[in-house]
Amino acid sequence: MDDAIRAAAFKWLKEKTEIFGDVLDYRILREGFIYQGNRISFLGPQGIWKPQAMELPISITSIPDGPYADSFTKDGFLNYKYMGTNPNHPVNTRLREMWKRQIPLVYLYRVVEGKYLAVWPIFIINENQENLSFLVAKDEMEYIQERKENFVADETEDNSRRSYLTVSVKQRVHQRSFREKILRAYRSQCALCRLKHVELLDAAHIIPDSKEGGEPIVSNGLSLCKIHHAAFDKHILGITPDYTIKIREDILQEIDGPMLKYGLQSLENNKIILPNRTIDHPDRDKLDQRYREFLDAS
Ligand SMILES: [Zn+2]
Predict the structure, then answer these.
(1) Could you tell me the distance, in angstroms and rounded to a whole number, from the CA of residue 196 to the centre of ligand 1?
(2) Distance of CA 177 from the midpoint of ligand 1 (Å)
């Protein structure tokens, strides 16, 4: 029964993430779905979560700054802390069994309060008893199936593929966390035009993450709609360190349709919308650095 529920769970997650993206609300994950009269939820009071109808867990959850300091290793894998400190606690024993049998799980990472990045399938690939943790990797179902059918084990190849896939999970964790924090700080609207459709909003960096000072923190970000994000990146508009919007001179002079007029020209000298908390306001030094680039490009 566990295998069938697990397969149904992956299918359900695929459908949900196709609609909502890979960051899902707590409510949706908690509610889960009904399988033959049993509620299969993805989240519970424990980080290692097993719905009642199942014998083995369905998901493991990480909470940043939570009591369990889960972290990515330098080989690109995830260290997931035991439940408690006893390696033979029944919950840890179940995860160990999943490692031996290579049974897939869902990994949930809380990007902000009430929102979780969902990643699957993930596998337990080792454990570190001294460190009281399991080693977790992202993989793809096809490879696992192939492996089972052919009984061919190429450990080096497995490891490098899993490491690569898990590193990309880490990147997603950072990107999605940044996005959700920015959207929350700006109350899900464009800081320039107030557009409130999250599907059309981006978390823009003030200093790009490829440059020094480009940290993924709220004060280095702006919530911008797609058009204003692109205009900001291409120096069609700039934002002064005192939060005033400036439109490039030649764009101000141009004559064209309503998008140019209302979408860009009318923003000239407006103030941007700021987050409620002062600590989340855009960093003035970073804006200054960026604004100089805008002036140079003008
Ligand atoms: Zn906008």
Answers:
(1) 9
(2) 21
Tens place of pLDDT per residue across the chain (298 aa): 899 999 999 999 999 999 999 999 999 999 999 999 999 999 999 899 999 999 999 999 999 876 666 788 888 899 999 999 999 999 999 999 999 999 999 999 999 999 999 999 999 999 999 999 999 999 998 887 777 777 666 778 888 999 999 999 999 998 999 999 999 999 999 999 999 999 999 999 999 989 999 999 999 999 999 999 999 999 999 999 999 999 999 999 999 999 999 999 999 999 999 999 999 999 999 999 999 999 999 8
CA of 223 to the centre of ligand 1 (A): 9
Burial label, 40 (beta-carbon count in 10 A; 0-12, 13-18, 19+): buried
- In angstroms, rounded to a whole number, what is the distance separating the alpha carbons of residues 134 and 151? 24
Q: Are 163 and 137 in contact (CB under 8 A)?
A: yes
Quick count: other Cβ atoms within 10 Å of Cβ 113?
9
Q: How far is the CA of 275 from the centre of ligand 1 (A)?
A: 15
The structural architecture, per CATH, of the domain 2-182 is Roll (2.30)
Q: Ligand 1 centroid to 282 CA: how many Å?
A: 16
Ordered by start, the domain boundaries in the chain are 2-182, 189-297
